[in-house]
Write a structure and sequence with these properties.
By secondary structure, the protein is α/β, with parallel strands linked by helices. It is built from twelve helices and nine strands. The protein is 35% helix and 12% strand.
């Protein structure tokens, strides 16, 4: 594995400074229209798992997949706009989308970093192991490490496929292998298995173990009650073997800390992130997918580069700013980035000065 630590590097929100720093001179001169740094694409709503905690499960019942024509035009736009990174995610299970390996190879050939969030159950069958070295990272959903709990949560017997994928990729690609991490959603079905998760994930050659507590969006009874949460807190506090380079367990309750909602939603203001839903609609922010007022267009009607700096996008930016300053933002990766940008802005002079 590359010498990268989970909390210090992969989860460090200060990585936004690499990108914001490149934009600062243009921003100081009044520019606000930028191509996205990264785009999240949900190619399909189809999924071969039925995870009981999944927030997309019910919402995606009547959705299909992006058409081949739309996907091809979207990839053209990503290349033309100079977007730096593409991550394929759900919606559904992205590896079920036909010819995904071809799209990844094409993006990689044009200098665009790719990554994927997957349940790993059909990664090999879809021909993705040979091109895994074209991915920056692979994040594998790990809902359980024992067969009974895995079957209860996913409705499948794909546990071995999931656990064996890191080894297969590393045997195939050696030093060229991507970072392969696990993502564990802690629910009332698996919260007592922290030790088992940590041990198995290490043994199975994952590079990190990223935990988060379920956000019970659908109110389907998967969240932790107060007693269960206190149990989990005690286990983490008393655990002697938590390696913060490998896991984020020490900080999984930090999401409840409220940020300072001041100035603007800079991530949206400068168009740093784009999100494409399985129906072709584009949103600047993943948490606003399915909210019509935050949609900037539909790829079945308009190419990405035509909608990106459109009047509709400007209207959505203003709406995002209103949401931000009113303190309504929740569960969004932009929150931490905005706070860091606010800190930088407070330290900057008011204009770009070429004399140092």
């Amino acid at each position: 594995m590359k010498d990268i630590a989970l909390s210090q590097d992969l989860l460090n929100s200060s990585k936004i400074l690499f990108h914001y720093g490149k934009m600062l001179e243009d921003i100081s001169k009044g520019k606000e229209d930028f191509a996205p740094v990264a785009i999240e694409i949900h190619p399909t709503a189809a999924c071969n798992h039925r995870c009981i905690h999944c927030s997309y499960k019910e919402r995606n019942e009547n959705r299909a997949s992006l058409s081949t024509e739309v996907m091809n035009r979207l990839i053209d736009s990503v290349i033309a706009m100079g977007i730096r990174a593409v991550y394929f995610s759900g919606g559904g299970e992205p590896t079920l989308y036909p010819h995904l390996a071809d799209y990844i190879e094409r993006l990689s050939a044009n200098g665009i970093e790719c990554s994927m969030i997957t349940n790993a159950s059909c990664f090999e069958e879809m021909g993705l192991i040979p091109i895994a070295d074209k991915l920056n990272y692979i994040a594998i959903s790990v809902p359980a490490v024992d067969q009974e709990t895995f079957r209860t949560i996913t409705g499948t017997d794909n546990l071995f496929k999931m656990l064996s994928l890191p080894r297969k990729i590393k045997e195939y690609h050696g030093a060229r292998s991507p970072i392969i991490g696990s993502r564990v959603v802690l629910t009332n079905k698996n919260y007592k298995c922290v030790d088992d998760f940590l041990q198995t994930i290490r043994e199975r050659q994952f590079d990190y173990a990223l935990f988060k507590i379920v956000r019970d969006y659908e109110d389907n009874g998967q969240g932790l009650n107060e007693e269960e949460e206190q149990y989990l807190r005690r286990v983490i506090e008393e655990h002697q073997g938590i390696d913060e380079k490998f896991t984020n367990l020490r900080s999984i309750f930090n999401y409840r800390k409220q940020p300072e909602f001041v100035h603007k939603c800079w991530v949206n203001q400068f168009g740093m992130i784009a999100n494409v839903s399985t129906d072709g609609r584009v949103y600047p922010n993943i948490v606003e997918i399915d909210k019509a007022e935050f949609c900037i267009g539909n790829l079945y009607e308009t190419d990405l580069q035509d909608m990106w700096n459109s009047e509709q996008h400007k209207a959505v930016k203003e709406l995002s700013n209103q949401k931000w300053v009113s303190g309504q933002c929740k569960n969004c990766r932009a929150i931490a980035y905005n706070n860091i940008i606010n800190q930088v802005n407070a330290a900057l002079p008011r204009y770009f000065d070429p004399f140092i």
